[in-house]
Design brief:
heterodimer; A: 229 residues; alpha/beta; Rossmann fold; two-stranded antiparallel sheet; 6 helices; 34% helix; B: 92 residues; mainly alpha
């Protein structure tokens, strides 16, 4: 079920479930370490989408997961181009973006965008700077300014300043067909609140099949509401 | 989330400690004001602090200035709850 996809000059892996001809969800995972912590959740949701008769695809973005691209070499445009290449795939019904992945779904234009706990780029960068500040003894604001000017280790990844700057200035795209879900207890506005814990913040990767089922059910309903199958 | 009282803030801080640090809710329920956190809870390392504070921000609708983050406000459950309650009061 692991295939690969071409973007600009490179190839990256893509984990795919489902049958050809089924409506397909393009998942855009959280960025950086949050992607590792939530991978089991996303894969469980993909299996449950298959029960709904919905196919799904979870790509490695350049420089993430098993990508051959070193993290330091990644630029924000690489991710935009990779998503644009993926958006040309067959049978796509919608994107499903998680956390910082929502910064990229606008590069798959024309598709409905389902989002879980979307983040602004500024908050993605601030979170990583904050996590690093407490171990390095440098204030988060100082670290963030440094990361915008030279390669800097943030939360375990050494990132290029052009990536950090572009990320920090990016917001999820405005679009007419967006559904936003968050976790119960979250104070921010959303179209629905799902039961579960913020696995992306947990110290260790975990899984939550109740949340995965709620995600799959909500995406399936959204696809139907959009008339995408 | 203006208008929350100290009891609600206490509940949110307990829930976040349980959810982010994977400490059973029953154990978090036994925490009192003097229960040690940073430096006392092995689950709360410096990387976990970032997730803890950001999740508290999200659930209480507050913003925590990084200059406010130090060992004192994380030393005990009481200190962290008081800090969060003061932020909530300041935003109401």
């Amino acid at each position: 079920m692991t295939r690969d996809y071409a973007w600009r000059t490179g190839r990256e892996a893509i984990l795919a479930f489902g049958q050809p001809g089924q409506p397909t969800v393009l998942l855009l995972p959280p960025l950086f370490e949050e992607g590792n912590r939530t991978r089991a959740l996303l894969v469980a949701a993909m299996r449950m989408l298959a029960v709904h008769g919905i196919a799904s695809a979870l790509p490695d973005l350049p420089g993430t997961n098993e990508s051959p691209v070193p993290t330091l070499d990644v630029r924000f445009d690489d991710w935009c181009d990779a998503v644009a290449a993926l958006a040309g795939g067959p049978d796509l019904a919608c994107t499903a973006a998680f956390r910082g992945g929502a910064l990229l779904d606008g590069y798959a234009p024309g598709l409905p965008h389902w989002r879980m706990s979307p983040e602004t780029g500024a908050r993605v960068v601030r979170d990583m700077a904050r996590a690093t500040a407490l171990t390095s003894g440098t204030k988060a604001g100082v670290l963030e300014a440094l990361a915008r000017s030279e390669p800097t280790m943030l939360a375990g990844s050494t990132l290029h300043p052009t990536l950090v700057s572009a990320l920090a200035d990016t917001m999820p795209a405005d679009d007419d067909r967006v559904r936003t879900v968050r976790l119960e207890g979250d104070a921010l506005p959303a179209d629905a609140y799902l039961p579960g814990k913020p696995l992306w913040r947990a110290a260790e990767p975990g899984r939550d099949d109740v949340l995965a089922q709620a995600i799959a059910d909500d995406i399936a309903d959204w696809i139907d509401a959009c008339g995408a199958r | 989330m203006a208008g929350q009282d100290a009891g609600q803030v206490d509940s949110v801080v307990r829930a976040v400690l349980s959810d982010v640090l994977a400490i059973p809710a029953e154990r978090v329920a036994t925490f009192d004001r003097s229960t040690g956190l940073f430096g006392a809870l092995p689950e709360l390392d410096s990387m976990a602090v970032a997730g803890l504070l950001t999740e508290i921000e999200d659930r209480l609708g507050i913003v925590i200035d990084d200059d406010d983050v130090d060992g004192d406000m994380l030393a005990t459950f009481g200190a962290l709850s008081d800090f969060a309650a003061a932020k909530v009061a300041g935003t109401s």
